[in-house]
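Q: For a teaching handout, I want to show students what a protein-ligand complex looks like in token form. Below are the inputs, and the small molecule is zinc ion. Please produce the holo structure.
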Amino acid sequence: MSAEALDAFFRRLPKTDIHCHLDGSLRPATVLELARRYKVKMPADNLEDLTPHVQVAATCRSLKEFLDVFYLLYPLLRYAEAIERIAYELIEDCAAENIRHVEVRLAPELQATEKLSSDQVISAVLKGLKKGLEDFGTTSSVIICLFRAHGPKENRRAFSSLRKFFKADSILEEPAVVGLDLAGDEAKYPTIEFSSFYEEAKKLGLYTTCHAGETVGTANLTAALELSVMRIGHGIHLMEDPKLLAEVVRRRVPLEIGLTSNMRTKSIPESQTHPARAFHRAGVAITLNTDDRGILGIDLTHEYAFAHKLGFTADELAAISLGSVDHLFMPSAQRAKLRRRFEAEISDMSAKSPK
Ligand SMILES: [Zn+2]
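A: Here is the structure, written as tokens, with zinc ion included.
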């Protein structure tokens, strides 16, 4: 089967994106327009010259170079109207490649200002997602990230917003805030320091995930499992500890994998292949996600094609896509409803499935 046919197959496949950062999902053209509107200085004033500054190329040398892009974007993310637009465009981009449900995450305190509270940031996101649902039909929900470098005061504010907006009973009808994540430098700020938030989330019945084992070792993976997180962001260092790996398989904790993201941030050394295939063989539930589609200049179809290059067959990838529905942060009746839709679409495609 040709690369074009595979691309068409993966584009048509119903998909979910459960690890998708709003601040990493801006279109370069939108960055340019917003910079002009809000008079934010950018390294270039035309799309061609600006794009290399707001997208990280394969030649990216380090995580620092990757994170520098975010510093450039943040001044644009502090206006309610801009936030709403970005959320709306993300839904449009998802719908264009048949992503049926996307869980969008953000650290509201990184976007909040004296004039714009965390609550207002979240309201703007929800407004954009709702408009997107109405126009393009892709459902969505929001995961709130605490930020590792933030102090307890900021993280408490973000957590309070999460509590205030949490509403998981009718996600397929209206986007809402559903869960908790922890993002940022995991080497400098270990997960264990944020345990109390996760304990509280568990008591409140919030859905939980956590970036862990993305850039360093397994200590944060151990902590995440001790805190009973429902999913793990990346977790690529899991291979270093067979006991921990067995535990993840036994408890069916899925990994939110971002293949291109892991390669570009150099979380996987250039000399090595991504462990996604090894995880799958070991029985770990994996999901494929964009992480930062705008900054990486990718879409989810690209990630499925990437996985195919790692050795996954089209049928295996269709099964992974279907399996990811079971890990969505929503009540089981809604997951079942979505699963039935996926099954119907996939069975319709299976006759034409490339091998
Ligand atoms: Zn992430």
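A: Two things your students might notice: Residues 84 and 124 are 5 Å apart (CA to CA). The first strand starts at residue 15 and ends at 21.
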